[in-house]
Amino acid sequence: MKRLSLYCSFLLILFFSCNQEEVIQLEEAKDITIEEVKEAFNARKKQNANARTNGSDTSIDILWDLAIYKELNVGDVLFFPTKSIGGEEGKRYVSSGEGTKRFPVDYTSFGRAYKDEKDEVVLEYVMPVPTENTAEFTGYFLVSDWGEEVKQILVYENGNLIGQTNPQSQNEISNRSGGNCSIIDHWWCVQTSVGDRIVATRCTYDGSTMVCEPDELAPPDPSNPGGGGGGSANPSGPNGLCAHPFIEGMWVDCDAVICSENYVADENGECVPDCGENMVLNSEGNCVCKQGFVSDGEGGCTAITTGLEDISNCNELSTRDNFKLKNVVDNYLTKCTNLQIFEYVVGEEKKFCFKIDGTQDVPGGYNYSTSDITFKSSELINETTFGEEFFHGYQDLFYGGLNQYSNVGRSNIEFEAKLYHDLTHGGLCCLAFEEPGTAVFTEYLLWLSEVSNDFTQLPNWSEISDKYFYFMKQFINEKPIYNYPIDYQLIPNAVLNLNDC
Fold it and tell me: Distance (Å, rounded) from C-alpha 496 to C-alpha 65?
């Protein structure tokens, strides 16, 4: 009982008083030396090899040069990082409860050695097993001897020790407890009877479950509990090493986040479903083509490389005008939000016929019946004209056909296209109002700057809803050609659907 008490105190100090423990330099005289630990480790390794036991020592190695001492209740304790043998293929992992994240044992587990009351070397291997991704560590600390027989289990919830148990032989007791946790062994038994007399009972062990009750007394205040299952992977130590997530003063290799099969790590280090090459998970949890790629029509994504050819099925332009339009499209695609529009259109496999029509009254036109995009002249083949008409083609897809807005709502469609241009050209505008110096032009420009954070981001509906239809009415007054009934239910979702880059 005395030894158990010392051992528990040792563990509590390890996990709750790291900031108060002084890291002792290796060259000072110690109760236990590295040479003694190496000798004990090699002896255990040889013993397990002869017995053909597949213990921890057969699959991991010790980084002796990174070992550190700590002075605890049991005396001087040597802590040492461990490393998998056999490179990436030989690495050992523990998984989170949902199985979507695997943590390399190299990064979280560690060994320790000290001398017991008989002055014999005690070797222990500690492996955290996270069960949830929480701000602080949630899961189990499995403390085993170097043969992987568990000696003690510590249960943590968000950095707090909520219970511990000391497993005993399964045949000794069926309801084992320690601290605030109990391990309940499950057996199923078959009895053989002769008359009313039972002559034989045969029971088979069928696994165990752990049940933990909350502490009646508050646990010690953790001064430096471990991180949420893996610690930081940002190099901050000597030779590009990372601080150990649980042992202050210890440095280890920086391992990348390792996810389970069919999952990959995102930029935040979280494991998300592996959507495949050139695809990402969107905010709704669906796999979509990443930026710069479009659907190949077969469930995959292909890079946007041709620009104009991706959206053209008919081209009545001269060679010179076609070359000019190609450059316009290439330049258009350099803007992130334009690229989103382009990807949407190409993903829907929509294409256009490009023409010159000198009879039209406006610089450009889009015919939703024929999918023609027309320019009044060669001089008007520019990013502004192309951008507005291409946006109409995008609206045609997004709203399920512009034919429904040939009358009521047509002014909405026209104003939205011009609003998009005016929001994304850094104050070099405006298409909706084209006479600088007028009161409405100034009022509109100030409004755009306010709702777009000085033209650095697209607004949401709540930011523009109070004046959106007000400026649409002013737009109709300025441009009577668009004097059609306003649809007050049609808000500019084609713009709001785009993401800031």
Answer: 57
